[in-house]
């Protein structure tokens, strides 16, 4: 059957209805009608190329490892092509640096991000394949913030009642532009896995969501609790998990349960023990304000209650930062009323979850409260026209760390301390300026005692400490041709037992001045840092270190970029640095002057 329609592309419910002379109406059939989109292409690209030449330099400085010519470039592009139900999506972010600064592996070109997707959108499902940088959209015991270069096969329903993916990935993160683009031949750098989520209740899919996941791989990245031999040691194993989610009362109640297990070698495949089995579990209850819940006098609120247990030998190669051998309980309550919002947090953690006699048992208790107040004011009237719009914030955090009595020799230290953090700050914002001031203090009370073994002191308590931190920042931008942002940071740290003190002062500013509108611009920044180290014991010499850095750049817009036409800037810039040390012979001073050009171009197309 052919249906001519001006409907937008998408899926629609279609009904065939019969109207009888007696007024009766009968639905003969109902089905899903898919309106396929016409052929459509959309692309966009942004690119920059900057080349500079060092024309002069400090004769005393060593620039032997730095070429006189230096170039940088960046490309950011995206493409979408759709023809009927078939669709192609692609994106790329590439960076070029002739000096290879910070590039791993060392190569002038780095492929920071890229992805290509070929998919087919049917009446109910979307299915496809992806290559490049892919993320597993799951935060669980097995996966957390997991993104790797991989090949990914996926399928999902448009109503999200079913989602499935299978992937093969490069275990280690890389930005290489020539190797391991989506897979690797090295078996010790391969990871495979998959995720599955489906809702068996069609009329209320949120009532029950069943999830399953699996991951198996090897790599050289060490995780929490690993036995690290060297950077080439290979770790690995496989992990699997199940989860159940249930949402009720118009999303006011969310129940989440998760269980996972692993068979993993965390001390190196060629060292120590073979793979060890262990498991982990998690349970979460979340309540949200809404029609089904009382407001409690607030505009909105959310309560989370969570319990998590991770075994000592449970690991997942896709979540290596997850700490093991830990039982944790957490309760958070956040909300807001008018201009005030808050977040309260209670946590308790305890190690040695299996209560082994040869493991030290440590306990952490935490409670915190964060407050934010941003009233709505009219900055055009009254006192607020002078002061600007206010915003205030404050927090209090308390942490207590203890260790079971008698475990000092097992851990090689004694743990018994409390840490209290206080902070208050405010900002005032206007149309052409803003400024802010904040103060924070951290007090640590150390009640631990020295630990002796064979008449030798193997642990010496640090004692009580106090840390003061003050920050001031200002921004002034009276017009489009001028802006300046000064800032000042001061920090003082003191160890009360031995009288040691460290004081740090950082001050500086950034400014931009349009000397000739839309033609000549000057950028200037300066930074000063001072570090004072004073010892309570006169045997040690006090020290002071001063650091000065500055940069100046003049930019002339020779050609202004227009639609699909590149722009050209010419620039002259210089940098200066100096460090003075009262004790060590690490004083230095250097400067350099460079000139160059930048070409930038952007374009897009729809059709």
Structure report:
This protein is mainly beta and 607 residues long. It has helices at residues 384-387, 408-411; strands at residues 10-19, 25-35, 40-57, 69-83, 86-97, 109-121, 125-135, 147-157, 162-170, 190-198, 209-219, 235-248, 253-265, 276-288, 300-310, 326-337, 340-351, 362-373, 389-403, 416-429, 433-446, 451-453, 456-459, 465-479, 482-495, 500-516, 520-534, 543-559, 567-581, 588-606. The longest helix has 4 residues, at 384-387. The protein is globular.
Main sheet characteristics = 26 strands, antiparallel, barrel
Count of alpha and pi helical runs:
2
- Termini, distance in Å? 29 Å
| Radius of gyration, whole Å | 31 Å
* Overall mean pLDDT: 91
Q: Which percent band covers the strand fraction?
A: over 45%
* Dominant shape: globular
Query: Which class do the helix and strand fractions yield?
Result: mainly beta
- Please give the share of residues in helix: under 10%
Using DSSP, what is the number of strands?
Answer: 30
Detail the poorly predicted runs.
none
